[in-house]
Amino acid sequence: MLIADDLDELLNILPNFVKSPLDVHPNKKLLIEIIMDLGRKPEARFPNGPEYLSNIMISRHDLDYCIKKIPNFSSDNRSGIEYTLHRISSIKNRKGNIIGLTCRVGRAIFGTASMIRDLLYIGHSILLLGKPGVGKTTLIREITRVLADEMEKRVVIIDTSNEIAGDGDIPHPAIGRARRMQVVQPELQHQVMIEAIENHMPEVIVIDEISTELEVLAARTIAQRGVQLVGTAHGSYLESVIKNPTLSDLIGGVQYVTLGDDEARRRGSQKSILERKTFPAFQIAVEIHQRNVCIIHEKVDKFVDLILQGSIFSLERRTLKLDGSVSIECEDSNFMEFNYCSTSYFNSSLITQSKHIKNSGLSNFSKNSFAENLFSSLNISDTQVYTNSKLFGNLYETKEINLSSKIDKNIPKLYVYGINLQQIEKVIINLNLSILLTRDILKATSILAIRSYVKQNSKIRYIAKSRHIIIYTIHNNSINNIVRALKQILVS
């Protein structure tokens, strides 16, 4: 992995008492940014934490010394150094005078795109997500070079703050043959995006920091014209983009839908639910959790639907190792509350996927769910399976296993009527109960339902009586009622 940082160019604009300690610092190559605030000690930030560089306090003279060596600041209080990737941001007081500087080191790291190189050849639009400073801009810069040089595509960069291609009229060599369009004012970025399509016939548009509603609309317009998009947005997870009303249209948007009484009962959900509005502008989402670790969502529309439905889904974690190789691991999602849509979503926890399990899904549930794929070979159709971990102790570590021999015939098979299925799943998982949830009432050994719903449904009462199925009723779907009912089912 080759790194080009032009660090000396940045250090040359600093006062000597700030520059000298950095020249001899053992972690100089890992420097993230330099902080200079009026009346405070200069500070350097590294991956392992901040350090003071001197006991001398920063004065106005020191700030003026730096400001004179860099171009004027734009309306977003950012500037740079020509022919480099460094970014200098200012903090101003109420009078408009600069009282602080943040000097961020810009690096071109060749090889970072190897984590997602295969996705670039698919030709789908890619959205990079991550918190500030995690390496989104560095990655998108390397993606730009790969698309332009190695894949020989016509690439145009919409460079709002000159972070991707560097400051000055001549772009940095790190972007390869890609062309760069600068944005005069940040609030006009959406206009430049449309201008690039109309005037320069790009095959790929690269956008850094999509943040406003107009930019989102422009991105959707570009995607509808058949141009590949590569963009970044702030947000650690795909769920955070769904929650963001401004950015949610990038992944299809969400809308409230009101179900009829019968449909709500059939689904076991509330009458008002959230669903995806339209096809997303980006077909692939990459969550950057660390500089060398990311989570891949190759079909954004499917993942958004699963999140809004509260279903289990599998994730793909990729790790870039020091030797340049990429490790790919499967993750199954864990249950967590998804407050935005009053339902549920599942967050990641690592498991290892068995290579000897047949990959087929179950109806009415996530076809990507690893738990469902495990039991599809057992011919238990239309059944969602949650079992005590003791029963399947070494399931994921065993190379070959006769799964049918592991099923205990005495495990209760529960049919749920009129209760939110996600609530039942959450209790079963959290309490580690050995219970099977089935969609087929004829396969059930027990029924759990709201009392008022059972009184109104004579068909369920007739089936339960004829097949000797015990009906357990609760007044409402509170967690306490559900817990008591499930424990009663187990001891009966």
CATH fold type of the largest domain: Rossmann fold
Number of helices: 15
Name the CATH superfamily assignment of the largest domain.
P-loop containing nucleotide triphosphate hydrolases
Number of strands: 25
Q: What is the CATH architecture assignment of the largest domain?
A: 3-Layer(aba) Sandwich
Largest sheet: 10 strands, mixed
Kindly report how far apart the N and C termini lie: 62 Å
Our count of domains comes out at: 3
Query: Which segments are poorly predicted (pLDDT under 50) over 5 or more consecutive residues?
Result: 334-407
Please write the CATH class name of the largest domain: Alpha Beta
Q: In what range is the share of β-strand residues?
A: 25-35%
How are the strands of the biggest sheet laid out side by side?
A: 11-10-12-13-9-16-17-18-19-20
Q: Provide the residue-averaged pLDDT.
A: 80
Helix content: 25-40%
Gyration radius (Cα, Å) is 28 Å
Secondary-structure class? alpha/beta
Shape: elongated
Keywords: ATP-binding, Chloroplast, Nucleotide-binding, Plastid
GO molecular function: ATP binding
Organism: Chondria tumulosa
InterPro entries: AAA+_ATPase, P-loop_NTPase, PTPase_dom, Spore_III_AA_AAA+_ATPase
